[in-house]
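Final report, Chapter 2: Outcomes

The project's central promise was a pipeline that accepts a single protein chain and returns its three-dimensional structure in a standardized token representation, suitable for archiving and comparison. That pipeline is now operational. To close this chapter, we reproduce one record exactly as it appears in the project archive, with the input sequence first and the structure output second.
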Amino acid sequence: MMDYLLLAASGFIAWIVSTIGGGGGAMLLVPLIGFIAGAQAVAPVVAVATLIAGGGRILIFFGDIEWRVAAWGLPGAALGGVLGAAAFSNTSAEWLQIVVGLFLISTIFQYGFGRRERTFAVATWPILNTLYLNAGITKEKMVGTKTAISLPMHLAKLGTYTALGALTGKLLLFGIAAGLGALLSNWLAKRVLTNMSELNFRAIVVGFMALSGAVMIWEQRETLLRIFPGST
């Protein structure tokens, strides 16, 4: 029972951070899920939690969704969800994580620590936060639009995890616990976001992207040390 309570509390905190930081809050669940159920449980459990939390978020931010952008993002997100889940279940992608991590860290300089609104012109199909920002989509619009795109993706991932045997009954319960905690945070996060300035939001999003990138690279430090053994 303590495991479920910890996951619910972590889900509540993680999705407040996710809303204010433009996403990535699920990364806060990773260490706890890994500790409780092992590294292979992280992706399926996060997918379940995100699907549950996203259901409530889509209702709260429904009026803020940029449907034209969502329409471009949905097909690729759904296909990517299936392929990513299949890859996770069968292969390792350490170097992809390192490359993405480096790109996320670079956003600090791309956006001048949040002071710059855009770094290049983007109109459609934004996937990463840097593309949303360049499309001029921030605050409530970013959260609503990202949720509209991500829900089908996570649904596709869950189907793939289930088909490949990566989602067991116990992991489903873990995901439900974290998702219910996250679901309760949506209303509070919406109020915080409404009272936040555009500049502060961009600064937090950029900072959180860089932090997420650093964490991703740190998680693959053993891979890097195998390539650069002389650095130890």
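Archive annotation: The chain has ten helices and no strands.
This record, like all others produced under the grant, will remain available to the consortium after the project formally closes.
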